[in-house]
């Protein structure tokens, strides 16, 4: 394993949070694969499949900015513990609904929406403490490890879901509730405070607006968030539409695919994507010691554009799995690189809010992209939809390369805000 990518694990606080977070990520993917497979089998509608994934990620659009304000006002560890407890309770409620026989896409999406909203509020608190857990030079590696944990869950979660679906979908979701409890215990055992910087506080609304202004005045943050925003609209929705892609593949062999058959293919696609993302996350820190960040990002975007256009029309499941693996590696590379830039340049006093805007805009764009692409897929089909997504993603590559100072901002050690920012909003 590349040593550079694992160095943050030498720090006990980060290692504890990362290990428990990986367990929670596993539970999240068990839930997403389970509910997505149920809806895909019962409805056959790409837009309903996308609705479940959108409900999982879209709450970041509102919850993350709110969480960013709270993370810059209160002890970040305590805030994260409160939101984790809420997630455990709400996820248990979702499991009870499945035990009761609820299968409709809309009621399930509403329950997932509330559950994910609690997680979105707590997310910025966790991200804001990351630079306090590892040295600045290891931030990109730490972000890569977080993405590795998320994608390790992507590998194992759907496989666990495929085993639990025959037993009962409620048990799969209940496993996710338990994972939040595991993470709560790990964070509680840190017994360390992570208070926000001291300073004069204004209203929550003004602090939130100030976070957006600081983001806009900080070139690296602005560039990273704008690029991720567009990629979440065009390329990334292929992940949430994986159950619809799985149904398309299963239909090649069976005229009436059942939920277990679809869940099996979903598990393999997610696993392939996760393996690719894990490998991409592991090698990124080492690659960046030899290759410019701007070059790495350009290659990742190019691979993403090419493969998203063709993966749904490949003739065999194993070929689609290979495409998912490469797309997973490209996604991990992009997100780790751009998130590392935001962590690198965000001013300390506004870090929680800047990160919350990154998460919020990205989650909202992903949710909107999923819903729109799911609706378009029901009209024009998955294959033409993904071809269009590939063309738009290729446009991102061109835009990055022709943008003035793009490479210099991306490759810099740090880029200060264009204008001085206050110590406190």
Q: What descriptive keywords fit this protein?
A:
425 residues, mainly alpha, Growth Hormone, Chain: A, globular
Describe the structure.
The protein is mainly alpha-helical. It has a single domain (3-191, 207-411), classed as MFS general substrate transporter like domains (Growth Hormone, Chain: A, Up-down Bundle). Helices cover 78% and strands 0% of the residues. It contains 17 helices and no strands. The longest helix has 32 residues, at 12-43.
What fraction strand?
under 5%
CATH class: Mainly Alpha
Q: Helix count?
A: 17
Detail the poorly predicted runs: none
Give the overall shape, derived from the CA principal axes: globular
Largest sheet: none
CATH topology: Growth Hormone, Chain: A
Can you count the beta strands?
0
Computed structural class: mainly alpha
Distance between the termini: 43 Å
Explain briefly what this protein structure is.
It contains 17 helices and no strands. With 425 residues, it is mainly alpha-helical.
